[in-house]
Amino acid sequence: MKSGIADYHLVQNMLSSSLLSKSIKINIYRCIILHVVLYGCETWLLTLRDEHRLMLFENRVLRRIFGPKKYKVTGEWRQLHNEELNDLYSSPSIVWVTKLRRMRWARHVAHMGEIRVLGFGVEPEGKRRLGRPRLRREDNIKMDFQEVGCGSMDWIDLVQDRDRWRALVKVVMHLWVP
Q: What angle do the packed helices 94-112 and 48-66 form, to 10 degrees?
C-alpha cells in the first residue's frame, strides 16, 4: 500500500491537471496506481479497518481526478460526496476487486490439492493471546463467499465444480459492477 501511495504522490499533479481528460486520468489510476496498491492482495487478511483505509485511499484519488463540484446558483465549490464519486467511477471499488482476486486465488489453491502447505486449514500451535482470535485466510474466504450468498456451501467443493464456479463468477461480476 505504501508503494501505491508513493506512486499516487508522483502522479497527483497529472490527476488534477485540466489538460488531461477524466478517462485518461481514470486509466492512469487503474493501470498504474491500482496495480501497485493491490499487489499481492490475494493473500491479505483484510479487517474492517483495512477495508476502510483502502476505501479512503480510493476516494482521495477519485476526488483528485473528478475535482470539486460548483453550485450553479451560488457559485460555491464543494467536495464530492462518496455516493457521487461511486456514481462517476463506474468500476468496482477497490475492496470488491480485492475480494474477487482473493476468491480467484482460492480456486487456484483448492486445485493444488495440498491446501495445508499454503496455510489453509492449519490450526496455530501453542497458546493464543487473550481476546478475539485472529482471522485466518480460510475465514476471510468464507466471509467472501457469504457476501455473495454461498455461505452455506463448502468453498473447496464449490471451486472443484467448474460449472457452478463459472455461474458464481458471473453472478458476482453482475453484483459488483454497477
A: 130
What is the predicted pLDDT for the residue at 29?
Answer: 92
Nearest one of 135, 144, 55 to 105, comparing CA atoms: 144
Q: Say which residue the cell 502522479 belongs to.
A: 11
- Burial group, residue 137, by CB count within 10 angstroms (0-12, 13-18, 19+): buried
Beta bridge partners of 69: 78
Helix (H) and strand (E) counts for the chain?
A: 9, 2
Enter the pTM of the model: 0.76
Which residue carries 508522483 as its cell?
A: 10
- Residue 64 neighbours by CB under 8 Å, 6+ apart: 12, 15, 16
